[in-house]
From TrEMBL, chain A:
Residues annotated as domain Response regulatory: 6-123
Pfam families hit by this protein: Response_reg (PF00072), SpoIIE (PF07228)
Top-level taxonomy: Bacteria, Pseudomonadati, Pseudomonadota, Alphaproteobacteria, Rhodospirillales
Protein name: Sigma-B regulation protein RsbU (Phosphoserine phosphatase)
GO-annotated molecular function: hydrolase activity
Keywords: Hydrolase, Phosphoprotein
TrEMBL record, chain B:
UniProt-recorded name of the protein: Anti-sigma factor antagonist
Organism: Azospirillum picis
Annotated NCBIfam families: ant_ant_sig
Domain of life of the source: Bacteria
InterPro entries named among the record's database cross-references: Anti-sigma_ant, STAS_dom, STAS_dom_sf
Family membership noted in the UniProt record: Belongs to the anti-sigma-factor antagonist family.
C-alpha cells in the first residue's frame, strides 16, 4: 500500500473484530477498533483522517444501517466509504442500507481475498474523490485569486479613466472666436480617443481629435502620451512662440516621432486644426480621420476634406492643410469612426448619411444639445450595452461678433 | 480566415471575411505571416469577401504588406464599397497597389 489507510473496524463481538483487524493489518492497513456505533462515531469525530469504515450490520443499540445514516450526517468535507458486514443467512434489507448511505457489502465470514479486492476498489474511489476535492479547492483558490486580480485591474482602469478624463477640456467652452463643445463615450472605461481645444497666444484656437487604432489599455496609454505631447507649444512656431503653425506640419512632426515597427501597427488617425483669430478661416489637416462636417447657418450639412494618411504607418507620408471659410454662426463637427461605424443589432452601420440627417434635424438646438442628440441617437441605434468602439465628437460654432483676445 | 490559391505561379491569399476588425486582426496577421514564410515575391491579397474593415484590421493589413514589400510588391483586389471608402479616406489606394478583380491582379504580374 502506498500510504497506510486507517480503517475503522466496528463490531460488537470482540472476537470477530480482532479477526478482521488482524486481517486488515496483514493487508497493510492501520486499524481503529470500535465496539459499537457510539464508539465508532466518537472515533470518527476524534480523527478526521479516517475515511474507511467496515461495520457489522446487526449490532445492539445503533445498527450498521443507523451508523451509516449518522456518518452521512457528520459535517465532514470528504466522503467516508462504508462497508457493511452481512450474515450469510440474513434477511437484510439492502435497499434500506443503500438509501442510508452504505457503499458496499461483505458477507460473513469474511474472505480475506475478497476483502482485499473490495478495499482496493474503495481506495480507488477515495483517491478519485480526494483528487477531485483537491482540484476543487485549487479551482476555488484560483477563482479567488482571479477575482482579486480582476478587482485590482478594475480599480487600475478606473484610476486610468479618471486621469484620462482630467486631460480632456471642459465639455463646453467659449474660446473667444467660437464656442467649442465635445463628448467622449469610451467603449471600456478607458479610451483610445482623445481631443483638446485651446486658445493660442494670438487669439486663434488650436484643437485636435485623435483616435488610436484599437481600443482598451494599449490604445489608451498611447492616447494619454499623445495628449501630453500636443500642448499649445506644439501648435506655434518655435522661434516666436506665438505664430500658429500649419496643421500639416504639426501632423508631420507626429508622424516622424511615431513610426510603429513592422511587427505591430500602433497608429492613430487625427484631425488637427487652427481656427483663426477672427473665427472665419479654419485650417485643418486630416490624417485618416473621418471627414468633418460643415453645418452652415443656412444650408445643408456638407462633408469636407480629402482624407489623408493615418499617423505612424508610413514614414514618408505627405500631409496637407485644407482651408475652410466660415460665416458667423456656422458649425463644424469632427468625430471618430466610432460614430459612423456604430453597429445596430443587425450589424447595419450608423453611417455618415444618418449623422448628416441628425445634424440637419437638430440644427436649431444649441451646440451642446446637438452633441447630446447625436449620442442619444447612437445609443438608440446600438440598442443597449457599451459601444464597440470609442465615440468622440468635437464641434464648434463661430460667433457673430468674435470677442477678440487682443494681445500685444 | 485565409484561403490560398496558386494561379499562374502567383500566390493568391483570399481573406474569407466578412469582417476584418479588432477581433480578427491578430489572428489574421498570424495566419498571413505563416502563409508567406517562404518570402514569396508575387502575392495577391483578395479582399472580395471583406465587407467591413476597421482601423485595427487596416493596421494588420499594412503590417503584412510591409513584410511582403521586402521581397516584391503585393497587389490587393476585390475592394468592396466600405473597404474602398476606408482606403480612400486613409489614402491606402495611393501606397498599395489595387486592382479591381483577382484576374486583373494576377495578370498584373505577367510579362
Amino acid at each position: 500500500m502506498p500510504n497506510r489507510l486507517r480503517v475503522l473496524c466496528v463490531d460488537d463481538s470482540s472476537c470477530m473484530r480482532d479477526m478482521l483487524a488482524a486481517g486488515l493489518v496483514r493487508l497493510g492497513y492501520e486499524v481503529v477498533p470500535a465496539a459499537d456505533g457510539q464508539e465508532a462515531l466518537a472515533a470518527l469525530r476524534a480523527d478526521p483522517s479516517i475515511s474507511l469504515v467496515i461495520s457489522d450490520w446487526m449490532m445492539p443499540g445503533i445498527t450498521g444501517v443507523d451508523l451509516c445514516r449518522r456518518i452521512r450526517d457528520l459535517p465532514r468535507p470528504n466522503h467516508i466509504h462504508v462497508m457493511l458486514l452481512t450474515a450469510r443467512q440474513g434477511q437484510e434489507n439492502f435497499l434500506e442500507a443503500m438509501a442510508a448511505g452504505a457503499d458496499d457489502f461483505l458477507s460473513k465470514p469474511v474472505d480475506m481475498q475478497t476483502l482485499a479486492a473490495r478495499l482496493r476498489v474503495a481506495e480507488r474511489i477515495l483517491t478519485l474523490q480526494q483528487r477531485m476535492q483537491r482540484n476543487n479547492t485549487l479551482l476555488a483558490q484560483t477563482n479567488q485569486k482571479l477575482r482579486t486580480a480582476y478587482r485590482r485591474l478594475q480599480e487600475d482602469m478606473e484610476a486610468a479613466a479618471r486621469v484620462q478624463r482630467s486631460l480632456l477640456p471642459k465639455p463646453s467652452l467659449d474660446l473667444g472666436v467660437a464656442r467649442f463643445a465635445a463628448a467622449l463615450t469610451p467603449s471600456t472605461e478607458i479610451s483610445g480617443d482623445v481631443y483638446n481645444y485651446q486658445v493660442l497666444p494670438d487669439g486663434s484656437v488650436a484643437f485636435y481629435v485623435l483616435d488610436v487604432a484599437g481600443h482598451g489599455a494599449r490604445a489608451a496609454l498611447m492616447s494619454v502620451m499623445l495628449c501630453r505631447l500636443l500642448t499649445a507649444e506644439a501648435f506655434v512656431e518655435r522661434d516666436d512662440g506665438r505664430t500658429p503653425r500649419q496643421p500639416d506640419a504639426v501632423v508631420a512632426d507626429l508622424n516622424r516621432q511615431f513610426q510603429c515597427d513592422d511587427s505591430i501597427s500602433d497608429y492613430f488617425t487625427m484631425i488637427c486644426g487652427i481656427l483663426d483669430r477672427d473665427g472665419r478661416v479654419l485650417r485643418f489637416c486630416q490624417a485618416g480621420h473621418p471627414n468633418p462636417v460643415v453645418l452652415p447657418l443656412r444650408g445643408r450639412p456638407v462633408a469636407v476634406g480629402n482624407g489623408g494618411f493615418p499617423v505612424g504607418l508610413f514614414p514618408d507620408a505627405d500631409y496637407e492643410t485644407v482651408e475652410v471659410r466660415l460665416e458667423p454662426g456656422d458649425r463644424m463637427f469632427f468625430y471618430s469612426d466610432g460614430v459612423t461605424e456604430c453597429a445596430a443589432p443587425d450589424g447595419t452601420l450608423y453611417s455618415q448619411d444618418r449623422l448628416h440627417q441628425v445634424l440637419e434635424l437638430t440644427r436649431t438646438a444649441s451646440l451642446d444639445r446637438m452633441i447630446a442628440a447625436i449620442q442619444t441617437e447612437l445609443h438608440g441605434w446600438h440598442q443597449g450595452g457599451s459601444f464597440d468602439d470609442d465615440v468622440s465628437i468635437v464641434a464648434f460654432e463661430t460667433f457673430a461678433t468674435p470677442a477678440r483676445h487682443h494681445s500685444s | 480566415m485565409l484561403k490560398t490559391h496558386i494561379i499562374d505561379s502567383v500566390l493568391v491569399l483570399e481573406v474569407t471575411g466578412p469582417r476584418l476588425d479588432a477581433a480578427q486582426a491578430v489572428r489574421f496577421r498570424e495566419e498571413f505571416l505563416q502563409q508567406i514564410e517562404g518570402n514569396p515575391d508575387r502575392v495577391v491579397i483578395d479582399f472580395s469577401n471583406v465587407t467591413f474593415l476597421d482601423s485595427s484590421g487596416l493596421g494588420a493589413l499594412v503590417s503584412v504588406v510591409k513584410r511582403l514589400n521586402k521581397h516584391g510588391r503585393p497587389v490587393i483586389c476585390g475592394l468592396q464599397p466600405a473597404v474602398q471608402t476606408m482606403f480612400a479616406l486613409t489614402r491606402m489606394d495611393q501606397v498599395l497597389t489595387v486592382r479591381k478583380s483577382r484576374d486583373d491582379a494576377v495578370a498584373s504580374f505577367a510579362g
